Amino acid sequence: MEGFFANVDWPEIARASRDTLLMLGGSMALTVLFGIPLGVLLYLSGKGRLAANPVVNALLSLVVNILRSVPFIILLIVMLPVTVLLVGTSLGVAGAIPPLVVGAAPFYARLVETALREVDKGVVEATQAMGGSTFQIVTRALLPEAMPGILAGATVTAIALVSYTAMAGVVGAGGLGDLAIRFGYQRFQTDVMVVTVVLLLLLVQVLQMLGDRLVAAVSHR
Predict the structure, then answer these.
(1) DSSP-assigned letter for residue 103
(2) What are phi and psi of 203, to 5 degrees?
(3) What is the Cα–Cα distance from 60 to 62, expressed in whole angstroms?
(4) CA 53 to CA 42: how far, in whole Å?
(5) How far apart are CA 44 and CA 39, in angstroms?
(6) What is the pLDDT of the chain when averaged over all its residues?
(7) pLDDT, tens only, 97-107
């Protein structure tokens, strides 16, 4: 076994794992920050909703659909000038976060919108009957009732972000993906590739387990 892992630099693996976790944590926090309001707006502006507005809904849907349809590897390259403008660099953890958020937030917004659509209309109508404003309906009825779906969507999005962080290694973002590309692929070091893949798989498993527990904790069923 020692011979098989001869090419593995464990301190480097540790640094790459840390970078992957930083990219995942930072981008996921911003994805939730932007994704939930965007999902709420998509829901509210839809036909027959509380703040129905076909024009706003069509524009939001167009932007979300365009960003969701662009392959992430292309989005990484296209956003290089924007990333440099926002954070001052296109490399490392900081350089990876803007395209990660732009790639994941629209995806998560659609999941939030879907979760809100599944809320029983009676809950909304009851809150309206009590004189609740749109803001109160959203914060006290819609979001609490949709929380299991919103958390399930966050889990799916976080797992997608793990694969995005791996792809970000192509443009020098660092992390396990960068290590797998530079050493596992370009230098044919199979042991490095195996270690990075196993660590990414473990990360996905942990995220799924945590997500399932959170959903179960807030579920009313």
Answers:
(1) H
(2) -60, -40
(3) 5
(4) 10
(5) 9
(6) 88
(7) 999 999 999 99
Take residue 160 and report the two structure tokens written for it: 């997608």
Element (H, E) at 71: none
Higher pLDDT, 213 or 191: 213
The answer to whether the beta carbons of residues 209 and 26 sit under 8 Å apart is no
Residue 28 Cα distances to 32, 189, 190, angstroms: 6, 31, 30
Residue 3 confidence (pLDDT) above 70: no
Task: Return the structure tokens found at 137.
Answer: 């309906």
- Kindly tell me if the per-residue pLDDT of 4 is higher than 70: no
φ/ψ of 90, rounded to 5, equals -110, 5
**In this structure, which amino acid lies at residue 28?**
M
Q: What share of the chain is helix, strand, coil (3-state, %, to 5)?
A: 80, 0, 20
pLDDT digits (tens, 9 = 90+) for 150-163: 999 999 999 999 98
Tokens coding 79: 């956003």
> Contact, 185 vs 5, CB < 8 A?
no
Which residues are CB-neighbours of 50 under 8 A, at least 6 positions away?
44, 124, 134, 137
Which two tokens mark 42? Answer: 């998509």
